[in-house]
Amino acid sequence: MENVMLLILGILISVLAIVNIKGNISTVHSYNRRKVKEEDVPKYGKAIGTGTLIIGASLVLSYAAAFWNEGVIPYIIIPALIIGLALMLYGQIKYNHGIF
User: Fold this and answer.
1) Quick one: how far is CA 43 from the chain centroid?
2) Burial 35-67 (b: 16+ CB within 10 A, else e)
3) What are the per-10-residue average pLDDT scores of the chain (100 residues)?
4) How many CB atoms lie within 10 A of CB 17?
5) First vs last Cα of the chain: how many Å apart?
6) Angstrom distance (rounded) from CA 24 to CA 36
7) Distance of alpha carbon 20 from alpha carbon 27, whole angstroms
8) What is the pTM (predicted TM-score) of this model?
9) What pLDDT is stored for residue 1 in this prediction?
10) Pick from 67, 99, 93: which is nearest to 3 by CA?
11) What pLDDT is recorded for position 100?
């Protein structure tokens, strides 16, 4: 039960990701989306949202895995963070033409 924050944070991040995937990028900081063209907003939302969803899902999965073995949590979260952040960086560079 001490890992319940993993579940809560994972669910919140996953919901945020689904909102982004559906094309609503208002949850992304304004300086991170100011150069995104109107026609690229759905693509940008999918790239950012997919990366965020991977991170959120890994937190939920880590919560479930903690019932069997808490030592496996870093092996789930760290690769998902790397992959999720890489997808978010890809979307940021491709559609916003830079990190900021």
Assistant:
1) 15
2) ebeeeeeeebbbbbbbbbbbbbbbbbbbbebbe
3) 89 96 90 86 94 97 92 95 96 87
4) 23
5) 39
6) 13
7) 7
8) 0.90
9) 67
10) 67
11) 73
